[in-house]
Each structure stands twice: as C-alpha cells, then as structure tokens.
C-alpha cells in the first residue's frame, strides 16, 4: 500500500509539473485574500471611476477565464452575460467558442513510393475547454496550425501515390483522429479535416497521361478484336444455316437483288432532281 501511495503521489506531482490544470484551482492564502479585500475596498471607494474597469460583458459565443492574483478562480469560465471583476487583482482572457477554420499551406511531401507531391488542406476546430486552452498552451490557435502541418506530413508519408490520389477521405479521417487526440489536453476539438488539392510534378503528370492513353488504346483494340470475333462467329452460323437449306440461299439472293434495285431507283430519282 505504501508503494502504491508513493507511485500515486509521484504521478500527481508529474501532472502538476506538466502544467495541465484544466479544472484544478488553488487557494489564495492569507496574503492573497488581504490584497483582494484591499482591492475591493478601493474599488467600492472609487466606484464612479472604477465602474468602467469592473464591468465586463461576454458575448453568447465567448467565455471568460478570470485570473485572480495569477490563479484561475472557480472551476468553470464565466459567461455569457455581464459580470464584475476587481481591477487590481483580476485579469480576464476571452475565449471564442465558435468553429475556426484555417488553410494548411501546400506541403512538399515524399510518399511511400518515393514520389514528391504538394498537398494542402483545411482544418475546422473549436475550443471545447476554455480553461485548458488558456492554461495548458501558449497559443492554442497557432499550435493547432503547426500541428496540422506536421500531421499532414506524417500521415501522407505512410501512403503511396495511388492511395494519396484515391483515398482522400481516409487520409482526412486519419488526420482528424491524430489531431483530435493530440489537442485534447489543449481543450481543442477538431471537427473536420479536408484535403483540398494534390499537385504532381509536370514530368509525372505527362507520364501518367501517356500511361492512361496507352491503356485506353489497348482497351479499344481489345474491344475491336472482340467485335471482329463476334462478327465472324455470326457469319459462320449464318453460313451453316444457309448450307442446310438451299431455299434460304435463294431467298437471300432475291432479297439482295431487291435491295440493289431500290438503291438504283433512289439514285436515279436524285439525279433527275
């Protein structure tokens, strides 16, 4: 039991050292409370002057994280609405809860089959925990942008060119899972990731176009050969039927003569016109 208690206390100490304080708050102490009371006294004494500094308004899509003498007060952010703060001891950080989108700049990536491609995308995310987004990371927006670029490189580095061109949805889903897991401690929720464009080198584009053209030509030749084979089979069957019945040959001969006569009459009619 003593060993388990030591391990638990060591783990708790490591978490405190890492700075992940999404919901934990500390006491201000005697000196802190004395400063807070003194600040409140001067605020009330100079109320007509300090009203502009004490009154804060937070919009419906925002939350306010309040620091009092360097510590986060309460266990949840303030807002939306109107509230008061002490101007000397309290500082306020507003956090936008709306979905934010940003473009991933084109990244030169070497695929698994050693092909260099340029890929860009777009990421949609929002702040799910305002306190963690302020206390656990310096700039959640900027950090998420950098992480999205590196994640795009890491994910596409495990794919070959054919998978990059055909499985964009799977790549986007994999990126979203990796980003969402990495930004969970930052209070960030990644809603959606999309791959916008995949640019290939010009030489590779010409080679792929030539390959596709050759494949189409080969497929056309195969189709033409199959047509010739089917036509020869039909002629063979027709010759067997005619050979079995001489009267059928005579009827076919008369039908051919009538067709030729009709064509001659039609040509003479057009010549007279």
Automatic annotation (TrEMBL):
<protein>
    <submittedName>
        <fullName>Stomatin (EPB72)-like 3b</fullName>
    </submittedName>
</protein>
<dbReference type="InterPro" id="IPR001107">
    <property type="entry name" value="Band_7"/>
</dbReference>
<feature type="domain" description="Band 7">
    <location>
        <begin position="53"/>
        <end position="212"/>
    </location>
</feature>
<dbReference type="InterPro" id="IPR001972">
    <property type="entry name" value="Stomatin_HflK_fam"/>
</dbReference>
<dbReference type="Pfam" id="PF01145">
    <property type="entry name" value="Band_7"/>
</dbReference>
<dbReference type="InterPro" id="IPR018080">
    <property type="entry name" value="Band_7/stomatin-like_CS"/>
</dbReference>
<keyword id="KW-1133">Transmembrane helix</keyword>
<dbReference type="InterPro" id="IPR043202">
    <property type="entry name" value="Band-7_stomatin-like"/>
</dbReference>
<dbReference type="InterPro" id="IPR036013">
    <property type="entry name" value="Band_7/SPFH_dom_sf"/>
</dbReference>
<dbReference type="GO" id="GO:0005886">
    <property type="term" value="C:plasma membrane"/>
</dbReference>
<feature type="transmembrane region" description="Helical">
    <location>
        <begin position="31"/>
        <end position="55"/>
    </location>
</feature>
<keyword id="KW-0472">Membrane</keyword>
<keyword id="KW-0812">Transmembrane</keyword>
<comment type="similarity">
    <text>Belongs to the band 7/mec-2 family.</text>
</comment>
């Amino acid at each position: 039991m003593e060993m388990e208690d030591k391990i638990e206390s060591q783990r708790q100490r490591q978490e405190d050292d890492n700075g992940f304080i999404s919901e934990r708050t500390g006491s201000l102490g005697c000196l802190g409370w004395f400063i807070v009371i003194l600040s409140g006294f001067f605020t009330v004494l100079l109320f007509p002057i300090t009203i502009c500094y004490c009154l804060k308004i937070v919009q419906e899509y925002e939350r306010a994280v309040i620091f009092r003498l360097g510590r986060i007060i309460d266990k949840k952010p303030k807002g939306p609405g109107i509230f008061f703060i002490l101007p000397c001891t309290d500082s306020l950080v507003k956090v936008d809860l709306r979905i934010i989108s940003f473009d991933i700049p084109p990244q030169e990536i070497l695929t698994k089959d050693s092909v260099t491609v340029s890929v860009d995308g777009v990421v949609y995310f929002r702040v799910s925990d305002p306190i963690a987004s302020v206390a656990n990371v310096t700039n959640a927006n900027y950090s998420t942008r950098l992480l999205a670029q590196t994640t795009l490189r890491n994910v596409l580095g495990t794919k070959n060119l054919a998978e990059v061109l055909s499985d964009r949805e799977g790549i986007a889903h994999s990126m979203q899972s990796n980003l969402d897991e990495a930004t969970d401690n930052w209070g960030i929720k990644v809603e959606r990731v999309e791959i916008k464009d995949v640019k290939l080198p010009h030489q590779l584009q010409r080679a792929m176009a030539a390959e596709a053209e050759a494949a189409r030509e080969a497929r056309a030749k195969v189709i033409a050969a199959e047509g010739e084979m089917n036509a020869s089979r039909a002629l063979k069957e027709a010759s067997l039927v005619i050979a079995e019945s001489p009267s059928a040959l005579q009827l076919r001969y008369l039908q051919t003569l009538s067709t030729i006569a009709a064509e001659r009459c039609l040509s003479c009619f057009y010549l007279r016109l």
